[in-house]
């Protein structure tokens, strides 16, 4: 990820599931995929908002016109967003 292409901004988000620190996660990530397959709650049924930070791409005109796919992102791009190396076994 080239940080010059993004602005880090603070936003308010409504959690769709209980918040659990990454260090306490136990599964293989399937719970994230399940969140993408359920209907969103109505506005009045959303959990209270919490503060979060997110990166916003600065150059909207250079975005590709293509559907974003979560599975493709995890498989091909997610590692560029984290400072870790996968364990080699």
Describe the protein's architecture and organization.
The protein is of the alpha+beta class and 89 residues long. It has a domain at 3-60. The protein is built from 2 helices and 2 strands, in the order βαβα. It has helices spanning 30-35, 70-76; strands spanning 6-13, 50-57. The chain has a two-stranded antiparallel sheet. It is globular and about 35 Å long. The two termini are 26 Å apart. The model has no long low-confidence stretch (mean pLDDT 79).
How do you describe this structure in short?
This protein has two helices and two strands; from the N terminus they run E-H-E-H. With 89 residues, it is of the alpha+beta class.
Write the layout of secondary structure elements.
Elements: E1 6-13, H1 30-35, E2 50-57, H2 70-76
Antiparallel strand pairs: 1-2
Poorly predicted ranges: none
What is the mean predicted local confidence, pLDDT?
79
Q: Give, in spatial order, the strands making up the sheet with the most strands.
A: 1-2
- Overall geometry: globular
Query: Helix and strand string, N-terminal first?
Result: EHEH
Number of helices: 2
Structure classification = alpha+beta
Q: Which range best describes the helical content: under 10%, 10-25%, 25-40%, 40-55%, 55-70% or over 70%?
A: 10-25%
Strand content: 15-25%
Describe the largest sheet. Answer: 2 strands, antiparallel
Number of strands: 2
Euclidean distance between termini CA atoms: 26 Å
Radius of gyration using CA atoms only: 16 Å
């Amino acid at each position: 990820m080239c940080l010059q292409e993004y602005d880090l901004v603070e936003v308010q988000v409504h959690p769709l599931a209980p918040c659990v620190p990454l260090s306490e996660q136990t599964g293989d990530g399937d719970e994230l995929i399940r969140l993408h397959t359920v209907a969103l709650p109505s506005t009045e049924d959303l959990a209270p908002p919490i503060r979060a930070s997110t990166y916003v791409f600065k150059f909207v005109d250079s975005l590709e016109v293509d559907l974003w796919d979560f599975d493709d992102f995890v498989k091909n791009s997610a590692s560029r967003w984290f400072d870790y190396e996968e364990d080699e076994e």
